[in-house]
Structure formats: C-alpha cells, structure tokens
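Sample entry (190 residues):
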Amino acid sequence: MSRPDQFSGEALTEHIELEDMLSPYLGIKSKELNLEYFEAVVRHAQQLFDALFEEGDPIRIVWHVYGQPVKPTRLFRYIQDKLVRFKTTATSCAFDDEPLWMFTVPVADKSAIRVRPLLEAICYQDFYTKTKPRLNGQYTTHPFVQFIHEREGHVLFVYDDRGAYIRGTSPAHLQSLKQKISPSRMPNRT
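Predicted structure, serialized as tokens:
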C-alpha cells in the first residue's frame, strides 16, 4: 500500500483529471461554488469506480491521515456493514517528522459502500459546505482514501476534485485497466 505522495510519476500509475473544462467557482472573482463542475467531477469519479470495481469484487479501503493525535474520520458512515469497523487495522509511522496513520478495512463488495456520497465527500474536501457529505470537520486533516481491488490488486485513489490515480500491478495490468475506462477520461499516454 502506498502513501498518497507515492503515486505521482510512478511507472505503474496513471493520472486522470476528473474535470478540465469547468471551474470550481462560478466566476473569476466569485467565491460561489459551481455546482455543475462538482456534479461533473463526482460523476467522473463514479464512472472510474464503476469501471474498476464490479459487483461482487472484494475491496479494501485504505485511508491515510497525517498528524497527531488522529481525529476520528467519518468514513464509516459510508460503509453499510457497521461491523467492519471491528475489522479495521491501524498502523503508524513517521513521515517527514510527522506521524502518518494508515487504516485498512475490508469490504465484501461495492454494494456495501455508499459510493456516491463517499466520492462527494472526497471531491468536496477542499470546499467546506454544510450541504455536502464530509470525511472530517471543517478544520481537521482530511483522510486520503484509496480503493484496492482485493483479487486483482489495482488501486483507485481519488485525491480531491482535481483528479485521481489508478495503479496496476504490471504494465500489462495497467494497460487493461486503461482499456476499461472511457477514452475521454483516459488518454493513451503510453
């Protein structure tokens, strides 16, 4: 499992912009959020998730939280099986003199996850609004959430409204993942 900073530039990883035509704000000097932008971002994130994880696929959700002490995340509200919180493992290490906590929870398949609200919480994390789901409070560190396919090993890491990374287990596996995703979301850059 990789830290969030280990995705960029990695050979088996591909970056995907979730929306490159619209702005998160309605105007250049406006602080009003462009809901059309966020709807497009969440829709594209959902399309990525659905392309990479099918019904019945076991998923491991991994989230990283920087800092000490760790504040509780609201991630479990997006998992329908409340007993998985007892299957969660936690580890910590120091990274750049700051504690980094990693939590891992197994999920039977994607039907056990409230995917759209979870992706909304991830994509809106830099734009605090009381009307959208949250992973943490307004002034706390946001967890970095990765979805790992338990059998095939690929990773989807939607880091915020700007984009996502997919990681394969080999060059051929990454290529097959890229073929699952629509060409408009995954230009062939190899």
